[in-house]
Amino acid sequence: MNNLPDISKDFALWYQEVIFQAELVDSSPVRGTMIIRPYGYALWEQIVDVLDDKIKKTGHKNASFPLFIPESFLKKEAKHVEGFAPELAIVTHAGGKKLEEPLVVRPTSETIIHYMFARWIKSWRDLPLKINQWANVVRWELRPRAFLRTTEFFWQEGHTAHETLEQAQEEVFMMLHEYKDLAENYLAIPVITGQKTETERFPGAIETHTFEAFMQDGKALQMGTSHLLSQSFAHAFEMQFQNRDGVLAYPFLTSWGTTTRLVGALVMVHGDQKGLVMPPKVAPIQVVILLILLKNKDNTAVIEAGYALAADLKKQGFRVELDQDMHKSAGARFFYWEIRGVPIRIEIGPRDLEKQEVKVVDRIGLCAESVNVSSVTQKVAQLLELIQKTLFERAQERNEHMWHKEEKLVNFGPILEKNNGIYQTGWCGSADCEQKLKEFKAFTRCLLEEKTFDVCFNCDKPSDRDVVVAKSY
Known about the structure:
The chain has 14 helices and 23 strands. The protein is α+β, with helices and mostly antiparallel strands. The protein folds into three domains: 11-270, Bira Bifunctional Protein, Domain 2 (BirA Bifunctional Protein, domain 2); 287-383, Rossmann fold (3-Layer(aba) Sandwich); 403-470, Translation Initiation Factor IF3 (2-Layer Sandwich). Strand 1 and strand 2 (34-36) form a beta hairpin. The chain is globular, with a radius of gyration of 25 Å. The chain starts with 10 loop residues before the first helix and ends with a strand.
């Protein structure tokens, strides 16, 4: 029986309950951390497989760097250490002794990787250098929430070095494009891309570009970022190379990353009152086959049919689970797979077999029909494609309903504070005006290229460009 909180009345509580009941996570004895259970980790692995393939196809190579970073490394770039100082976990003792220099548990790896870049890059022939790392990082979160903000989380972080600023900028936008493709074409989550304001940019970057998604409750979630670091870290680590003219120069650097936060986004964008809803392209299980077995009866034919169908679907590349549990009622088994968001359920019972049929039911209400056994594979392929497309369209339509264009904060601020939502407005570029948004618990999410408004949302100065404003996770 479904006992999830009402998603329309308490979205935050629904989220907290569904990720536990669907067995994505469990509580950890260490504050702010989470245990990712096998089903949750299988979902993360599906996302990792897609993104890792994208990263390698765009010319990057995976590597691994230490978890511990000398404290002095972070102090080399002033804005970097200032930005991360409140979130750092620092090791001062090890092996029963006080360390000569404290070690920081990595919050991000720019410094240790740039230390190595300075050793590896000597000539323009060594560029571009494109490295990616899959790792865990630690940031001491004050208000942790599983998958969204945790003290320890998994991510990938890309780091690159280039001869010219133009090449570095191309890298930043190329990876932002790959992230957008991952979100929209695999996670079925529509996103907007844009530049972060100076206040919101990554510590040590001269530009931060983001891809932002909007949850069902109207709040924004930063899904990942791509940073133009320029030469600040290169100077800090004395990273020089001999350019094509034989002169010593500093490379232009970038970094970019996304995290297990993508799992939280998927839950909040697609979930419903029954539980999770998995986009087929990343669903750990795309099809579950439920055998309707009768007690004290010969179920051999049903079991054989189930195994044969599972083998056939797996042969076609589908991710399939066979459920032949006789100890639970059919309703309990339906609930078990519904709350986990499995896209397609196929039911096989004695009466179905007599007609050479199976019942095909999808998770989001597009199909519930009997299908001839010979047509099941084709039906599954078509239905998975339709579910993927429909989930994206539903999320896109919801975003359009939540999107508002308003000129003045004094008018839309109270509405935003009470009801959430996405607001496009004008901005003069002043940090003082940006600060006013916090009075309504809102923040700038990203700058847009377009300019719809003539004046700033707060003052009467001319607007530089439009900005997206929303509450955020």
